[in-house]
């Protein structure tokens, strides 16, 4: 894994956007795997302001709360519309459907749609403070394909800041599995701030454990991790 250390959040965002823009320049019909959370907000701003042509680019998002209406302002659909999709014209955008009644069928549909599109060229990832990627939570075993996951209390608490209260955070989510993430040709991870330093350290530890899902990324042949100085810790 390659690590790029940036001075601060803005530099991290700019560097991350540059890598995505480079990808699109090389392959105008790239399939991007996109992420939500506070970490990539600056990167999306850089993409919006780049003036780049996204018209042949398709995207698949990592995850979505379940159940949650797309129109809810805390849905990842809403986040993506607000941060990117309403501002740039893209060929297509897909996100797991938090309104699906048959979740097994929705998970199957999602994996098949990614496969049919030709697979993800570049997957963007943030890191949960507990090491989750997408919503793949630490556990004894991790799922390969897209699946419904019960959120851990620590994730509900970490994400409660966006909702009126912790009780309003959905208890489940639909997420791409570790298999889906690892199938991406390239992976780009962003991490910013002191509360990510420990997880960044574990990610580079040389040890792989399902209790730190992000540590599995060490097995992927093409991962770039962009951190700011705070997330880089004391190294
Ligand atoms: C959520 C998302 C993750 C994201 C994480 C980190 O739980 N499911 O994909 O990486 O939040 O969020 P933040 O960037 O706000 O720290």
Short description:
The chain is α/β, with parallel strands linked by helices and 235 residues long. It has eight helices and ten strands.
Form type: globular
Tally of separate helices: 8
Helix percent reads 25-40%
Number of strands: 10
Instruction: Specify the biggest β-sheet.
Output: 7 strands, parallel
Rg from Cα: 16 Å
Helix and strand pattern: EHEHEEHEHEEHEHEHEH
Bound molecules: 2-amino-2-deoxy-6-O-phosphono-alpha-D-glucopyranose
How far apart, in Å, are the first and last alpha carbons? 16 Å
Please give a structural write-up:
By secondary structure, this protein is of the alpha/beta class. The protein is 32% helix and 19% strand. The protein is built from 8 helices and 10 strands. The protein has a 7-stranded parallel beta sheet with strand order 1-10-9-6-2-3-5, with helices on both faces. The chain has a 3-stranded antiparallel beta sheet with strand order 4-8-7, with helices on one face. Strand 2, helix 2 and strand 3 form a beta-alpha-beta unit. Helix 1 packs across helix 2. The longest helix is centred in the first third of the chain and has 18 residues. The structure holds 2-amino-2-deoxy-6-O-phosphono-alpha-D-glucopyranose. The site of 2-amino-2-deoxy-6-O-phosphono-alpha-D-glucopyranose has 14 residues, from helix 5.
């Amino acid at each position: 894994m390659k690590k790029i250390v940036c001075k601060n959040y803005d530099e991290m965002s700019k560097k991350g956007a540059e890598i995505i823009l480079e990808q699109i320049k090389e392959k105008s019909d790239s399939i991007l795997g996109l992420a939500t959370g506070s970490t990539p907000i600056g990167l999306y701003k850089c993409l919006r302001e780049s003036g780049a042509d996204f018209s042949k680019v398709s995207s698949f998002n990592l995850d979505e709360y379940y159940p949650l209406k797309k129109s809810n302002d805390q849905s990842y659909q809403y986040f993506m519309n607000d941060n990117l999709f309403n501002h740039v014209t893209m060929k297509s955008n897909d996100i797991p459907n938090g309104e699906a009644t048959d979740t097994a069928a929705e998970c199957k549909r999602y994996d098949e749609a990614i496969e049919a599109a030709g697979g993800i060229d570049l997957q963007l990832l943030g890191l949960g403070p507990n090491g989750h990627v997408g919503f793949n939570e630490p556990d004894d075993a991790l799922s390969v394909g897209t699946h419904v996951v019960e959120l851990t209390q620590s994730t509900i608490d970490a994400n409660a800041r966006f909702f009126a209260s912790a009780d309003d955070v959905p208890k489940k989510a639909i997420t791409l599995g570790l298999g889906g993430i690892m199938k991406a040709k390239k992976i780009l991870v962003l991490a910013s701030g002191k509360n990510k330093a420990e997880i960044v350290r574990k990610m580079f530890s040389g040890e792989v454990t399902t209790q730190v899902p992000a540590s599995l990324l060490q097995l992927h042949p093409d991962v770039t991790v962009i951190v700011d100085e705070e997330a880089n810790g004391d190294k």
